[in-house]
Design brief:
Strand content: 15-25%
Helix content: 40-55%
Strand order of the largest sheet: 2-1-3-4-5
Shape: globular
Radius of gyration: 15 Å
Bound molecules: 1,3,4-trihydroxy-5-OXO-cyclohexanecarboxylic acid
CATH topology: Rossmann fold
Largest sheet: 5 strands, parallel
CATH architecture: 3-Layer(aba) Sandwich
Order of helices and strands: EHHEHEHEEH
Number of domains: 1
Structural class: alpha/beta
């Protein structure tokens, strides 16, 4: 059974209330519940973490080492600023999928650059809460392929 760490960055705890025209009306709790349902259907184990603090996010990423098989992360605004989060992902070396609710490439220019993209398997953005579900599927598929490659 694959073990996947879901990580939500700053202000994502405000989903539902926060700029609903951009991020939708779904709360983080309901996104996590849907992911939990999806994970049990797919037979993977999820751990979920949210923090507004960069250091706490780095600690969570470091703690995945030896305990998780992959990371699904929405780094929120730290996407565009955090070398520390990028370095933590590179340090643990786990397959990581970056997700965003909004299409960051359609928004302000400061959101176009992601420090995380270069260390991620890939990025999914612009599908609202569904970005997480799509990202989970993409990560599992990637882990399955890696697993098969190891066997042969
Ligand atoms: C976000 C996009 C970021 O630019 C923003 O700072 C967020 C949310 C998204 O999910 O669309 O907090 O990561």
């Amino acid at each position: 059974m694959f073990r996947i760490q879901i990580i939500h960055g700053p202000n994502l705890n405000m989903l539902g209330l926060r700029e609903p025209g951009i991020y939708g009306r779904q709360t983080l709790e309901s996104i996590n519940a849907s992911l939990g349902q999806e994970a049990s259907n797919l037979g993977v184990a999820l751990s979920v973490f949210q923090s507004n603090s960069e250091g706490a996010l780095v600690d969570c990423i470091q703690a995945t080492f030896g305990h998780q098989d992959g990371i699904l992360i929405n780094p929120g605004a730290y996407t565009h600023t955090s070398v520390a989060i990028r370095d933590a992902i590179a340090a643990v070396g786990l397959p990581t999928v970056e997700v965003h609710l909004s299409n960051i490439h359609q928004r302000e220019t400061f959101r176009h650059h992601s420090y995380i993209a270069a260390v991620a398997v890939g990025q999914i953005c612009g599908f609202g809460a569904d970005s997480y579900r799509l990202g989970l599927h993409a990560l599992i598929k990637h882990l399955e392929i890696k697993h098969l490659e190891k066997k042969t």
